[in-house]
């Protein structure tokens, strides 16, 4: 199974790709993306 943190991180990046406004709440994810 894939670690939950991996799934959560991937889901967050997908949400940001669809809604850039979320980058405001997840600046660290935006940097890695």
From TrEMBL:
Origin: domain of life: Bacteria
This protein's name: Uncharacterized protein
Source organism of the structure: Pandoraea commovens
